[in-house]
Amino acid sequence: MLKIDMHAHILPRDWPDLGAAGIPNMVHGEGRSEMHIDGTFFRAVTANSWDMAMRIEEYARFGVQVQVISTVPVMFSYHAAPAVALELSRHLNDHVAGLQADHPRHVIALGTVPLQDADTAIGELRRLREQLDVPGIQIGSNVNDRNLDDPELFPIFEAAADLGLAILVHPWQMMGRASMPDYWLPWLVGMPAELSRAICSLIFGGVLERLPALRWCFAHGGGAFPWTIGRIEHGFKMRPDLVATRNAVNPRDYLGRFWVDSVTHDPQALRYLIDVVGADKVVLGTDYPFPLGEQEPGKLVESLDLPDEQRRAICHENALRWLDLPLERFS
Length: 331
What we know:
Strand content: 15-25%
Structural class: alpha/beta
CATH architecture: Alpha-Beta Barrel
Largest sheet: 8 strands, parallel
Helix content: 25-40%
Distance between the termini: 11 Å
CATH class: Alpha Beta
Radius of gyration: 19 Å
Mean pLDDT: 96
Strand order of the largest sheet: 1-5-6-7-8-9-10-11
CATH topology: TIM Barrel
């Protein structure tokens, strides 16, 4: 059965030093590579972060044929001047588009755009679609602490809808991180909250209502949102004066109108997620190649006793619908 991992991160081995604060650079040493930000160690990375032949071989061991590649969120660089962020985005987008062109049966590329400036972002959206043949983009769960319903972001999403681009939302710059510096809590606690923040903002801000054709997918199983939908709906019903100020549609009605990946790390959680959002809206994802990712791609989905049609949908059909791509491309 064809398997598509729609949540896989990649980096170029190197990229230009743009001389701007807060933008990572790669430092290769003897047997070890590191990402640094402003001269400070950020993360160690291994060769499978950029070596496509190695990645394809690793995936093949687990029976996964296709990886949807997107940049590492720290590369978003939303804080930078738009011209600087655009230069970096173009370099990253040319890289993933090149890998897609070189490995058409194994790679689908997602681009990145500088969301801090609408005109700049929209120009790069057009280039991604019209020149690079990229079917979607990855964005952060907030933009410099602005929620995704910020009016300045809407034209970008509107342009993505007009161009037929899909959007993957990934947690980024987790709220509350300064108050929980220990125990990796920004990743363990903040990430799920970030995705619920993003989904609620898009629902209550009316973005999903105004752009019904825009195809959204949320990483890490949609974060805390599917598990707290009862509380969110209850708040909507009890205090519409606080919650339903921009959109009067019940948030539960949006279940089944967006996709989520399978990165839940727990068979019971994944089964619940399928029940809540629908088997036609869950896509196989891994967060490869990082520690919080699924270490054996596809194993969690395979661990469930699912009907063949649901397994087929989660393994590839749902991802192809989200990306609006034909199955024949990979046969």
